[in-house]
Specification:
The structure is a single chain. The chain has 8 helices and 5 strands. Strands 3-2-1-4-5 form a 5-stranded antiparallel β-sheet, with no helix packed on it. The C terminus is likely disordered.
Length: 365
Amino acid sequence: MRKKIVSLLIILISVALFLAVYFDFGLYKTPIAKVINVSEQNISVGEGKYAEQTLTLKMVNANENTGEKGSKIKVKNRYEIEKTYGEEYKKGNFLFIDKTGENGKELYSISGQKRDYIIAFLIIMLADLLVIVGGKQGLLTVMGILVNSLLFVGGMHIAGNGNNFIWFVILLMIIFTFGIIFLVNGKSRESLAASIATLLTVSIIGVLCFVVIQLAPNIKYEFLDYMPEPYTLRMANGLLLSEILVGALGAVIDIAVTIIAATKEIVEREPGISRVGLLSSVRAISDDITGLMINVVFFTNVAVILPVAVLGMKNDFSLWSVVGNHGFFLLIRFLVGGMGIIAAIPLSTYIGSIFFKGKSEGAIG
């Protein structure tokens, strides 16, 4: 009965949160309209084939530029048949509207689509699954993600335009590491050991990357995502190093926590084991997860470049051109992440042996 009540409560809260985001039109200053009717015809412009839509929209929030809530307007929209350029809109979509003027007539244009409720749905589903499957541990994971997200958004708002961006990212990484591990694993020697192992591993590969970036020929940053223009070489190097460190952090945390837990278990079962024997035992365990984690990092980076590669080839760029320009930075992140995973194993084992060999587990302090 208790589980049924908890599950019902989770469902009710989830539905309420989703509906709150779905109907949050009043929070936007930008005019928002709902598509209530679509008529479409195919046209040709030069060698291109397009679909031209006439959209009937109903305003869902009041705005002085586009009329009162409930008023209806018509907007033209054009997109390429292959959908490389432009976007197709369907009945039920919520669109951001801009008012324009031409020859004394009132015209309207679409500046984008409201998708926050889709993101909210996915986040709510993830949180629900974590809580239902993981129980208390899942709830702590959700809390950790929420706290880290708020810290990240707030931090980017404060220091996103600063010249010392890399130092701020390093500070955030320290907070993220201790926050995630201690929140999920609790306040223990195991959590402290895993945090130290994570930060030590990321620090080593970070220093290594910094030295390589400084000694290597200047990198062409024109294809680095979201690189501001104009930029200094120092700013570009800092942004790249920040991406590398944050990308490696997640994988290293996972490996460090796993290895520290395994080290603790082995030492408790065989208190007299030597550090060489301990490393050998942990290595046997790590063989099962190292390859999987490296592939996770690989496919994560492939997922980033996949849409860029498809769009590039649609616009007559070769696959090798896309991979050579955009894929260079993804390759760096993948290689550094892989090195971090491998380096985390002996480092975590050594730190774990220091914390647990000959010592009993206890709370910090």
